[in-house]
């Protein structure tokens, strides 16, 4: 284990932050590291909105499902998949814009995720804590209106950044054998591994700081996938110009 691997294995979501602000230039340095992430076809199809106004932060906290750390973290960033910039390039060179194809949507969304994950690693390397906020997609229209997002841009998720005011345990991940396959997809033997993992997760929830519900991973996933998941997203994305041709 080298320093980088140790850092990656120590990742936790932080939901309580101190009042300490980031140092001058620290956020820009971290975001610069994020820009070094891979980007398909060099599209660089992501834009970050830094939200600092308290009233805007409070609105976003509400839109995200009343998550107070959205308002309280030292920094809050909204990561957007952005095809508007590419569309402007098409207009500049008098080329037709075909950015409403599904593939372009995937590229821009993946670009946003890769950019964010590089930023997370850079931030954690400097002692900061993070929490991804997918809850912004609970109310994507309200978020987009607040941030004045134009056609061709949508909010993928938010990110809290700040100095941790808690020290939660690292949440165990699935056994490597479950997610790493050789040559072809084969889930034979996964059931026994997941059963053992479920017991580990039950114990994690039972004993973690503050206590927990004590249910296992597979039960969580079954509950998640048995319910409707933000059915408004397809209509919202169409309104933003993503038509999935």
TrEMBL record:
Residues 10-163 form the Nitroreductase domain. The keyword NADP applies. Keywords: Flavoprotein, FMN, NADP, Oxidoreductase. Pfam families: Nitroreductase. InterPro entries: Flavin_OxRdtase_Frp, Nitroreductase, Nitroreductase-like. The keyword NADP applies. CDD domains: NfsA-like. GO terms for molecular function: oxidoreductase activity. Belongs to the flavin oxidoreductase frp family. This is FMN reductase. It comes from Pseudohongiella spirulinae.
């Amino acid at each position: 284990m080298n320093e980088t691997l140790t850092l990656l294995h120590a990742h936790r979501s932080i939901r309580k932050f101190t009042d300490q602000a980031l140092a001058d230039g620290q956020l820009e340095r971290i975001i610069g590291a994020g820009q070094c992430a891979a980007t398909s076809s060099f599209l660089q199809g992501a834009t970050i909105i830094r939200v600092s106004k308290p009233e805007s932060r409070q609105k976003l906290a509400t839109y995200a499902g009343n998550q107070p750390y959205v308002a309280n973290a030292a920094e809050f960033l909204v990561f957007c998949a952005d095809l508007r910039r590419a569309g402007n390039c098409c207009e500049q060179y008098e080329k037709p814009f075909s950015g409403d194809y599904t593939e372009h949507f995937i590229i821009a969304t993946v670009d946003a995720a890769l950019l964010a994950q590089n930023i997370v690693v850079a931030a954690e390397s400097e002692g900061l804590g993070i929490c991804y906020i997918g809850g912004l997609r609970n109310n994507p229209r309200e978020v987009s209106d607040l941030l004045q997002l134009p056609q061709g841009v949508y909010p993928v998720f938010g990110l809290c950044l700040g100095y941790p005011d808690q020290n939660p345990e690292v949440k165990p991940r699935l056994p490597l054998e479950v997610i790493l396959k050789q040559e072809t997809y084969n889930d034979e033997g996964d059931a026994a591994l997941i059963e053992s993992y479920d017991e580990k997760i039950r114990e994690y929830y039972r004993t973690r700081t503050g206590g927990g519900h004590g249910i296992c991973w597979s039960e969580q996933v079954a509950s998640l996938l048995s319910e409707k998941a933000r059915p408004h997203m397809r209509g919202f994305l169409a309104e933003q110009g993503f038509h999935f041709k």
